[in-house]
Design goal:
With 113 residues, the protein is of the alpha+beta class. It has two helices and four strands. It has a four-stranded antiparallel beta sheet with strand order 1-2-4-3. A hairpin with a 2-residue loop joins strand 1 and strand 2. Helix 1 packs across helix 2. The longest helix is centred in the middle third of the chain and has 31 residues.
């Protein structure tokens, strides 16, 4: 994970975060496994549906959930790494999440002085 912090003013910081593709793919696989246990696909008992059918049925939802989880974890880790304590929820901008590429986004936070 790569993080750059810009000081916008005395209480606002802009974090530009890039997460490796491997980490996003690992979270994607984790999300698929979680859904595989629960999803009901006709002709298959719960937990036995093939991975490909789950991806075909829920593809976009799976990717979005994986990206959301990675984004949340990356933001938390970036704040901890840079010793920033946000006083409000971040404003997330410019999320770039293409399959086969790293995830990148911008988080604008306010901190206590």
């Amino acid at each position: 994970m790569q993080v750059t912090v810009q000081e916008k003013n005395s209480f606002t910081r802009v974090l530009n975060i890039t997460v490796d593709e491997a980490e996003v793919n690992a979270k994607y696989e984790e999300v698929i496994k979680g859904y595989r246990k629960e999803v009901a696909i006709p002709g298959f008992r719960p937990g036995t549906a093939p991975r490909e059918l789950i991806i075909k049925k829920l593809g976009k939802v799976l990717r979005e959930e994986a990206v959301e989880k990675v984004l949340s974890n990356a933001f938390r880790d970036a704040c901890k790494e840079n010793k920033l304590e946000p006083i409000a929820m971040p404003v997330i901008n410019n999320v770039k999440s293409q399959a086969g590429e790293p995830l990148s986004f911008e988080a604008v936070i306010e901190i206590d002085q």
